[in-house]
Amino acid sequence: MELKEEILGKKRKNYLSWDEYFMGVAKLTSGRSKDPHTQVGACIVGEDNRILSIGYNGAPNNFNDDDFPWNRKSESVNETKYPYVCHAEFNAILNFPGNRKDLKNSRIYVDLFPCQECAKAIIQSGIKEVIYLSDKYATSSSTQASKYMFDKTGITYRAFPEESIKEIKVSLKPDTSISYLNDEKK
Ligand SMILES: [Zn+2]
Q1: Are 157 and 132 in contact (CB under 8 A)?
Q2: How far is the CA of 165 from the centre of ligand 1 (A)?
Q3: CA 48–ligand 1 middle distance (angstroms)
Q4: Cα gap 39→83, rounded to integer Å
Q5: Residues with a known catalytic role
Q6: 118, 135, 139, 185: most buried, per Cβ within 10 A?
Q7: How many CB atoms lie within 10 A of CB 176?
Q8: Residue 148: in which H helix or E strand, if any?
Q9: Which one-letter DSSP state was computed for residue 49?
Q10: How big is the CA angle at 142 (ends 139 and 145), to the nearest 5 degrees?
Q11: Could you list which residues have their CB under 5 Å from ion ligand 1?
Q12: How far apart are CA 111 and CA 48, in angstroms?
């Protein structure tokens, strides 16, 4: 059966690309972080474009957020967040409730280029591609170690597409224009 164009109606043009959608989910997820300085989100996506897991940076499970040292500087490194905080990518991998083999060939969307510890978790989990928004620590030894490991293990990485860099507004106000029912006046 062939339907005429006027019967088919017009498809919406400005819908989100997959990259925009998944990076949007990663960014929205970062909103759960209690870190006062850095909020990072990650979203793992399977080969069939289904979301497998999400994560954000935070304290280990059962570590009370109010007892957590959120500082970046102190006399002792153990009085800062660094030894304790779980990064978004690490959490996304460990939060995955399914069978580990389903992470094989998946991709991960993340705010910030993964540190060397998350890079190792990414490699070991079977994730094959990293899509990042920011590479602001590109000259750090950690990021360089991550890239070296990715290059050696065949993990590809790419910056989020330039043409997709934009603001996406999410309103949580009820939208009265939404309609599921056929209530169009004829
Ligand atoms: Zn990390």
Answers
A1: yes
A2: 23
A3: 26
A4: 17
A5: 89
A6: 118
A7: 6
A8: helix 141-153
A9: S
A10: 95
A11: 87, 115, 118
A12: 22
- Can you give the pLDDT of all 186 residues of the chain as single tens digits? 888 877 787 788 889 999 999 999 999 999 999 999 999 999 999 999 999 999 999 999 999 989 899 999 999 999 999 999 999 999 999 999 999 999 999 999 999 999 999 999 999 999 999 999 999 999 999 999 999 999 999 999 999 999 999 999 999 999 888 787 876 665
Q: How far is the CA of 143 from the centre of ligand 1 (A)?
A: 10
Residue length, the chain?
Answer: 186
CA of 20 to the centre of ligand 1 (A): 22
Q: What is the pTM of this model?
A: 0.90
Joined together, the tokens standing for residue 27 give: 């960014």
Report the separation in Å between the CA atom of 8 and the middle of ligand 1, taken as the mean of its atom positions: 47
User: What sign does the CA torsion over 19, 23, 24, 29 have?
Assistant: positive
Q: How far is the CA of 87 from the centre of ligand 1 (A)?
A: 5
> Distance (Å, rounded) from C-alpha 145 to C-alpha 127?
17
Please give the DSSP secondary-structure letter assigned to residue 133. E
